[in-house]
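Table 4 source record.
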Amino acid sequence: MKANKQAAGSTPSFEQMVAGLSHQLNNPLAAILGYSELLLRRDLDADAMSMLELIHVQAERCKRILQSLNEMTRRPAQGFRVVDLHALLRDCVAMKASEFETRQIQVQTHFTGVNPTVRADALALQQAFLLLFDNALESLEEHTGERTISISASSANGWVAVRVEDTGPGIKPDVLPRIFEPFFTTKPKDENTGLGLTLCLAILEEHEGRIEVDSTEGRGTCVTVFLPAKVKPAAATSDVAPSLAGKTILVAEDEPALAQLLSSLLTPFKAQVVHVNDGQEALDSAREGHFDLIISDIQMPRLSGIELCQQLASSNPGLADRMILITGDSASKHPELLLQGVKAQFLYKPFSRSELINAISRVLADRKGEDHPA
């Protein structure tokens, strides 16, 4: 249901509350994830490593919750990328592992051969598969016979097929035609909204995919998801480390923990990092010195990251194209930059080391072979 517009001074909308929550939590969460990732690379004793891994896993869980909240408000088109489907499905199975174990359900996975890839919004697709897993779990909840869920993925003729099959009681013939209807459920209304398969179908349609359900009462259910296959590109991070050696990077970040984190992530690549605390200082530094790359938070004192990029687009367009803008708003599309033809990359908080390096790799790849402005 689309929310009504709120008048000034009225109760904030759900979207506004999510945006405010993200703004308050993304910075500390990014710092927790970043520093725990750095510490996990050190030689620590087993107990410390175990506790640190738990911290990192729980922080990742908080990250997914925040991302899910943002996805509920609006999903950006730039969220689509090439996704390794085997890896995504393994993550989904891992997220449900405790439920499978608690309910004494055996899970069989069949991920063999070349990893199938699709162009997808990974978080949305993950949500769709988790909804299918939930349905399979519910079908086996009171089942007294074999309790098994089988998950497989294969590709052929330009399509990837993911099958989620359970050994539950199956779906009654009169119910099967209605399973995708909004709010339709055979469970008590206080236990199930009846929107799971509706949402799953909507996500798959966004991905130009489809879903088929084959079920026989008393013999289980097989749900098959079809998605267009995509050719997986070469790894983007393979040549980042040597390409950063000797580069000078300007980091504009007013949050001390994030500024230190960015420096800690970049200096091992033998890059020189110059840190400034606000957007105006970043603009002055960019005009006075030579930088190969600028990483700037969008929310900055005196001059925002957007305004910094806009001003550089007029005076030094080559450097504006070599910017990475960090934001906690996963729904931002920033059309004011796109209209100007600026090629800045966006990095969404909280980000991992690999996500930062991938963003840098894309910037350097886009500008490869061009002379840097003096």
